[in-house]
């Protein structure tokens, strides 16, 4: 009998202030709350039998620790590092430790916004980047993992 295929373990990480989605600049980030986005991700993962772990933190070090743990616990990472995208060498260095797919997501089109948002440290460790599609971007990121 063939060995059972282990479920794909996908870690979805969200950085600072994303817990305020729905109330935070809805004209930029949309009306979905982070719970809405988590529910949509769970609905996408469930029929695929994936093990989805969806987290948010306002603390850089906590995100770094979770990324380090993903070396053992995850087969892929989807990350919206929020403002740390543009500042965090620590998150980049942690992601560089991974040898699994890393998909970077932004709700807004960061390239259409202020100049300081145009540069992403995280992109240097990303397999792909999705931005400007709102909450749907998370599902696009998950869909990209279907074939990875
Ligand atoms: C964001 C874009 C970042 O520039 C910003 O700091 C965020 C959210 C996005 O999803 O569009 O907090 O990552």
Task: Chart the SSEs and their pairings.
Blueprint: E1 9-14, H1 26-29, H2 34-45, E2 51-56, H3 60-73, E3 76-80, H4 89-96, E4 102-106, E5 128-131, H5 136-146
Parallel strand pairs: 1-2, 1-3, 3-4, 4-5
Helix pairs in contact: 2-5, 3-4
Bound molecules: 1,3,4-trihydroxy-5-OXO-cyclohexanecarboxylic acid (DQA).
1,3,4-trihydroxy-5-OXO-cyclohexanecarboxylic acid binds next to loops.
What does this structure look like?
The protein is α/β, with parallel strands linked by helices and 148 residues long. The protein has one domain: Dehydroquinase, class II (Rossmann fold). Helices cover 33% and strands 18% of the residues. It is built from five helices and five strands; from the N terminus they run βααβαβαββα. Strands 2-1-3-4-5 form a five-stranded parallel sheet, with helices on both faces. Helix 2 runs parallel beside helix 5 and helix 3 runs parallel beside helix 4. It is globular. The two termini are 25 Å apart.
Runs in which pLDDT lies below 50 for 5 or more consecutive residues are none
Spatial gap, N to C terminus: 25 Å
Helix content: 25-40%
Biggest sheet descriptor: 5 strands, parallel
User: What would the average pLDDT be, to the nearest integer?
Assistant: 96
Q: Looking at this structure, what is the CATH superfamily?
A: Dehydroquinase, class II
Q: Under CATH, the topology is which?
A: Rossmann fold
- Mind telling me the C-alpha Rg? 15 Å
Count the domains.
1
Summed up, the helix count is: 5
Bound molecules: 1,3,4-trihydroxy-5-OXO-cyclohexanecarboxylic acid
Structural class: alpha/beta
CATH architecture call: 3-Layer(aba) Sandwich
The shape, in one word, is globular
CATH class: Alpha Beta
**Beta content:** 15-25%
How many strand segments? 5
Reading the helices and strands in chain order gives EHHEHEHEEH
Strand order of the largest sheet: 2-1-3-4-5
């Amino acid at each position: 009998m063939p060995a059972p295929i282990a479920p794909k373990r996908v870690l979805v990480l969200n950085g600072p202030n994303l817990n305020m989605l729905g109330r935070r600049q809805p004209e930029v980030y949309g009306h979905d709350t982070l719970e809405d986005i988590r529910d949509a991700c769970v609905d996408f993962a469930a029929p695929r039998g994936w093990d989805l772990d969806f987290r948010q933190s306002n603390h850089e070090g906590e995100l770094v620790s979770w990324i380090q743990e993903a070396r053992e616990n995850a087969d892929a990472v989807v990350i919206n590092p929020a403002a740390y995208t543009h500042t965090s060498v620590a998150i980049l260095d942690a992601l560089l430790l991974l040898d699994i797919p890393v998909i970077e997501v932004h709700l807004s089109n960061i390239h259409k916004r202020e100049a300081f948002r145009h540069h992403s440290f995280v992109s240097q460790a990303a397999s792909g980047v999705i931005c400007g599609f709102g909450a749907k971007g998370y599902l696009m990121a998950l869909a990209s993992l279907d074939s990875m």
